[in-house]
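The protein record quoted in full:
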Amino acid sequence: MKQAQAMQAKLQEAQGRLAETEIDGSAGGGMVRVTLKGSGELARVVIDDSLMAPGEAEIVADLVVAAHADAKRKLEATQSEMMREVAGPLAGMPGMPKF
């Protein structure tokens, strides 16, 4: 029972750390950057001024999607690592909470 309570406390701590986490993703050599919060919410988009020209809309859109995918992949890796830290050998087993 004490082990379960300790794991629950660790899980809550990890969820708190994750909520405060921000993950950056980029595309186009950094010309488009996005920031995701730990919850997955899109917090910020930065687009290099050189892309803000007529006829560049499709390129910008593609780069935003790619930057978001990069950030999401990094966020999922961070979430998995936090879960491994909390659950140890039980991580990934049925019934274990996921972020």
